[in-house]
Amino acid sequence: MPHMPDLRPAWFIRAGLFLYDHLARRELLPGSRGIVMRGHPAGAPLVESIKRGFVYSDGWVNDARLVVLNALDAAEHGATILTRTKLLSAVRAGGEWRAQLRRADGTTLGVRAASIANAAGPWVGELLQARWAARRRTACGS
Ligand SMILES: Cc1cc2nc3c(=O)[nH]c(=O)nc-3n(C[C@H](O)[C@H](O)[C@H](O)COP(=O)(O)OP(=O)(O)OC[C@H]3O[C@@H](n4cnc5c(N)ncnc54)[C@H](O)[C@@H]3O)c2cc1C
């Protein structure tokens, strides 16, 4: 990662990489380090005005395959996997969750669950609002 003048200060990036190194224990990959571009193989193809840079190692995974493999593993352990299915709402009633789902073909179905893990990523809040909205509607009897 070449350091350019318009980036954050070098010390700031170094501090960030230091934190990155220590977020998890390193067993296989080397830690990050600062480098001087002149004389370093990474600097060879770069313009001379780039004097410094940083080297860090990271892992890579095919996240689509990871999701599929997780789903297959869960299915092998008895889970029902419903792809292209949206959770519309979930309300707590009678000591359990009653959830409304919508399939890609527009059909809806209701499921009951002892617990729910909200793993909607950036949509976590939106989903919570849908849940509360459904709860309010239920409370109002509409
Ligand atoms: C451009 C970009 C690059 C990134 N690069 C990296 C990287 O290199 N390394 C790294 O570690 N992280 C990276 N991240 C971060 C990483 O993608 C997220 O941290 C991770 O995907 C979060 O996983 P999640 O399962 O919590 O949420 P998500 O992967 O966002 O999954 C949430 C799922 O919930 C579904 N959903 C939402 N609402 C509903 C609903 N009502 N009913 C049913 N399903 C619903 C969505 O369709 C989605 O499939 C990157 C993120 C972005 C945006």
Description:
With 142 residues, the protein is of the alpha+beta class. Helix content is 32%, strand content 22%. The protein contains three helices and five strands; from the N terminus they run αββαβββα. Strands 3-4-5 form a three-stranded antiparallel sheet. The chain has a two-stranded antiparallel ribbon with strand order 1-2. The mean pLDDT is 90. Bound molecules: flavin-adenine dinucleotide. Flavin-adenine dinucleotide is lined by residues 86-87, 119-123, 127.
Brief rundown of the structure:
By secondary structure, the protein is of the alpha+beta class. The chain is built from 3 helices and 5 strands. The strands form 2 sheets. The protein has a 3-stranded antiparallel β-sheet. Strands 1-2 form a two-stranded antiparallel ribbon.
Topology:
Elements: H1 10-23, E1 33-36, E2 52-55, H2 63-76, E3 85-93, E4 96-103, E5 108-113, H3 124-140
Antiparallel strand pairs: 1-2, 3-4, 4-5
Residues 86-87, 119-123, 127 line the site of flavin-adenine dinucleotide.
